[in-house]
Amino acid sequence: MTGAPQDPALAWLDKAASLISGHPVNVDEVLGATLAQREEEAERHMFFPTGPVGDFAALRPFQEVLWNNIGSAGSNPPGGNHTKSLERALLEWAANLFDLPADDWWGNATTGGTAGNRAGLLTARDRFPRTPYGMTTAVAYYSAAAHYSVPKMLHELNIPAVRVHTDAYGELDYEHLARSIRPDASAIVTVTAGTTMTEAVDDPRRVHEVLDAAGVPGRYVHCDGALSAIPLALDMELITEGVDSVSLSGYKFLGTPRVCGLVVGRNAASRRSQHVSYIASIDDTPVGSIDGLPIAMMWYTVATHGNEGLRDQAYAARQLASYAENRLNAVGWPAWRHPWAFTVVFPTPPASIQQRWPLATDANGQSHLVCMPRTTKEQVDAFVAEMAEVGWHRASA
Ligand SMILES: *Cc1c(COP(=O)(O)O)cnc(C)c1O
Fold first, then answer.
1. Which of 17, 128, 167, 214 lies in disulfide reach of 138, CB 3.0 to 4.6 Å?
2. Residues of the domain holding 106
3. Strands in the chain per DSSP E
């Protein structure tokens, strides 16, 4: 592993030698450099769906101590140093938001969207028979716009997987899905609510139509809603009919200042779990020990804003995205967005822009800007001003 020459941690490695010979490391300098690196880019960091966060001062006393939410949401590990009651309330809120049956859902707090995808896909695999050699008999399908964690987890879980095309706007190509389906095998389909590049949303109803027509023996639909599941569900725009599980990242729409996530699904009895005497808990989780502080932060965001407040934030963020789209077009950049999206898509700008702004860019020459609830108009204006200076036609000529 190599780092940039100015990497504060590498500078520390040089100094570690002097530590051994008795000269103390300047810890303040190393920590200061790490913070400075963050601050230098913070104003221009609006191309990934995170952002400056809200006020979490109420949780400051929680930061000095260890919280370990090991084990299932339903059980309290011994010792009291957990936020399990907040975890239960948060998961119940999510199950309710995603219309899961009140008496038959499961859920876990996770380390992020990736772990949620793993939990959903593992639950899917456990629903279908295995061959005498232990291989799953199901086949998984995911779109070319699915997050990279989806094929990664299908690989880790040893589930045979088929990659399906998307349309030009990033939504699953249902006709290509129909041509790709193996009618003799149960199907595990991952749909995305908010793809990483264009914030496209796949329609599980159309997936079910394809599966009905193919006559597959069994099915499981997992929704990767890392960014958009919450804001779409708040507007009743998220289709959860026939969706078996939904995962999301807590630090995206909920804006927690710690990386985290959650996953919820229907049909609790079908999930693998074990009683662990040593932690006096049931374990049905995708991880072992998990930090209870980010879980408390997700709960705090929901508890302080309420659905109404979160909906208002989503609305304001979409307004800003619409403003950014219009401004980019007004200065000659052909930008577009899905009507529900925080994400504005435009052709990849030239290197001069890329050097200053930490853009997210794909292999098809597309880049984007993500207007999250905490992105400001000033940030958008600063970016648009530089884009105007470069100009699209000059850039593409
Ligand atoms: C961010 C994201 C993920 C992964 O989430 P992590 O929290 O980074 O693990 C998965 N899917 C989509 C669509 C995402 O946007």
1. 128
2. 57-303
3. 105-110, 139-143, 161-164, 187-192, 219-224, 245-249, 261-266, 274-276, 281-283, 343-347, 360-361, 366-370
